[in-house]
Write a structure and sequence with these properties.
159 residues, alpha+beta, OB fold (Dihydrolipoamide Acetyltransferase, E2P), 2 domains, eight-stranded mixed beta sheet, 8 strands, 27% strand, elongated
């Protein structure tokens, strides 16, 4: 047992001595630099990666099943506006692309309608026209497929 202890102590001392001599040799062969000087280092920031705008899919408003498949994603929905409805109670405008509840709808809430008024646009002006609405498609359990229009720039008149 004493041999193991003595062997361990000898091993630790020899490792310490080897490290000490390595440090002395490193200091001897390394050229010291004057205070405040050293190797010149320059920093060049990396260029930001080229951001390629992902292509937002274009879907016709009458292709309800394709629109449903894109629920939760950004899309461009194009079609002829069937009618523009208005809820007086909530001051919400509904851009309907078909006569039934199952057809696609663009929804303009009262908070966004103020921006339409500032730009002198009224949702009724879209009625009967071919438009494209860009935004996130939502599949609302009660109201069906819709895009919430928060800015007039999300609606582009085609004709």
């Amino acid at each position: 047992m004493k041999r193991t202890f003595i062997g361990t102590v000898v091993l630790l001392v020899s490792v310490f001595v080897a490290g000490f001599f390595s440090h002395l040799l490193y200091q001897r062969w390394t050229v010291p630099f004057p205070e405040g000087q050293g190797y010149p280092v320059t920093f060049l920031p990396l260029q930001p990666p080229a951001t390629r705008q992902a292509e937002i899919p274009l879907v016709q408003a009458r292709e309800v099943e394709k629109i449903r498949g894109l629920a939760g994603n950004q899309a461009r929905v194009r079609g002829r506006v069937y009618r523009v409805g208005h809820s007086v109670k909530s001051n919400t405008h509904f851009i309907n692309f078909g006569p039934s509840r199952s057809s696609f709808t663009g929804v303009i809430f009262a908070s966004a309608f103020e921006m339409f008024e500032k730009k002198k646009l009224h949702p009724r002006s879209y009625e009967g026209r071919e438009v494209e609405i860009i935004g996130e498609i939502k599949d609302h359990p009660k109201y069906g497929l819709e895009i919430i229009v928060e800015d007039p720039s999300q609606i582009k008149v085609i004709d």
